[in-house]
Design brief:
GO terms for molecular function: hydrolase activity. The protein is α+β, with helices and mostly antiparallel strands. It has helices at about 1-15, 15-30, 55-60, 125-130, 140, 145-150, 225-230, 235-240, 335-340, 345-350, 355-365, and strands at about 75, 85, 95-100, 105, 115-120, 150-155, 165, 170-175, 180, 185, 190, 190-195, 195-200, 210, 245-255, 260-265, 270-275, 280-285, 290-295, 305-310, 315-320, 325-330, 370-375, 380-385, 400, 405-410, 415-420. Helix content is about 20%, strand content about 35%.
Length: about 425
């Protein structure tokens, strides 16, 4: 009877050629033998993420019906290339910005030469190898980025005037007040390389807290080529697509010249900001769309807690003079994305479809735009500014509030935006 049943099932299967075609097609997609998908050629291992539900977050989110961020003024267009982090020195000069071509530059003023190169992160840097102007934020720079460097987080030590740099390839670095070639401080922790230094902040005791986004991936792909460029998938996208949680919060101690692991198992740890009273720090987890708190002092020292769940993907977080926190957010999550987040097996199929990443994102309903949000120490929303049409900035990486103005950076475009505030 069992043998007859099996024969009947086989006959039913053979009578439905579309079912056979679908099975073969799905098998071909999953195997991806020609590496045609955005994740082709990679050991793609998606996992389930610890992320708040879309509905819960959006019910509690304060939007900006006036789209006030869109009133920002694009500045220095095509003069700076992917200025992710912005900083001002001890006398208020600046801004300083880390660029996609591997330099840290300084604004000297319109009548003093404009932008000048302040620092580089490697002796490999040369104009011939690294300087691609407006193409620095495109795929034309990717294969050169590991050699030229990619300075991300910037912080001045207000006492010494030294500038500390988190470079995604060369680790934690420092350069003196006069600039020049930066000196490496931490390229390894506990004997293993720091693959993706991202952002940092300096404690009053001299310790430097910084993020290492992943132990598996650096910022851009290790292998370049026309096919990979066509599919527009840099390594930091794989971190998010997989949902992998190998990122760390690290601390560098100047007296011993050693780095230590403070937290691990983080999903794309990104921005870092120490509180005004130095009792805690905030860090963002980009993949999990949230801001977290790590206590540095008091009875909860060494513990973490949730500060805020976000509607999009946070980058850097920065303090204002009132002790409030500006978070730059690339918005927004979608319901379709949430289905993929909670079903790794489905993600494994979807991202093996032979289409560029931008098309797969559109099919999920993703329409990226910029949001910046101001939080108090308890994680309560103080203000939200949006730019849904991308007038001032399509992607944001950092917000600096100084002297009644917001300075807004971006890792992906060639400009800075400014906006009077409040």
């Amino acid at each position: 009877m069992g043998k007859k049943s099996k024969v009947l099932k086989d006959e039913v299967f053979l009578q439905h050629p579309y079912l056979i075609l679908l099975t073969l097609t799905m098998g071909f997609i999953i195997m991806d033998p020609f590496d045609l998908s955005p994740v082709g050629g990679h050991d793609f291992r998606p996992v389930k993420n610890d992320i708040a539900s879309y509905q819960e977050v959006m019910e509690n989110w304060h939007g900006d019906n006036l789209s006030r961020l869109g009133l920002g003024v694009p500045e220095f267009v095509d003069q700076v290339y992917g200025p992710e982090s912005l900083e001002f020195d001890v006398v208020g000069q600046g801004p300083y910005a880390g660029l996609a071509d591997g330099r840290v530059v300084r604004w000297m003023g319109e009548n003093n030469g404009g932008w000048e190169t302040f620092a580089t992160v490697t002796r490999n840097w040369s104009e011939k190898l690294c300087a691609r102007g407006v193409d620095s934020t495109t795929s034309k720079q990717w294969k050169h980025e590991p050699r030229c460097g990619r300075p991300l987080g910037l912080r001045f030590d207000k006492e010494s005037g030294e500038l500390y740099i988190a470079d995604s390839y060369y680790g934690l670095m420092v350069v003196g007040p006069e600039g020049g070639l930066a000196t490496p401080l931490a390229t390894h922790v506990e004997g293993k390389p720091i693959l993706f230094a991202n952002d940092l902040d300096i404690h009053k005791n001299g310790s430097i807290f910084f993020t290492d986004t992943s132990k598996r991936y650096n910022r851009v792909m290790a292998v370049s080529g026309k096919l990979r460029e066509m599919f527009d998938c840099r390594n930091h996208f794989f971190i998010m697509l997989e949902g992998e949680s190998t990122g760390r919060l690290l601390r560098y101690d100047p007296p011993t010249r050693t780095a230590h692991v403070i937290l691990e198992g983080l999903a794309f740890p990104n921005g870092v900001q120490i509180s005004k009273d130095q009792s805690f720090l905030l860090y963002t987890e980009t993949t999990n769309c949230r801001v977290m708190k790590y206590w540095l002092e008091g009875p909860r020292s060494g513990t973490t807690e949730l500060v805020a769940d976000l509607p999009g993907f946070p980058d850097n977080v920065r303090l204002n003079e009132k002790g409030q926190f500006w978070v730059a957010i690339d918005c927004c999550r979608t319901r379709a994305q949430e289905v993929l987040v909670h079903n790794p097996w489905l993600r494994n199929i979807y991202f093996r479809l032979p289409f560029p990443m931008r098309y797969l994102a559109k099919m999920m309903g993703t329409k990226m735009y910029s949001v910046i949000s101001l939080f108090d120490e308890k994680g309560e929303i103080v203000d939200v500014l949006e730019d849904k049409k991308g007038v001032a900035m399509k992607l944001v990486s950092e917000v600096r509030e100084t002297k009644g103005k917001l300075w807004i950076g971006t890792v992906a475009h060639n400009q800075i935006a400014t906006l009077p505030y409040p």
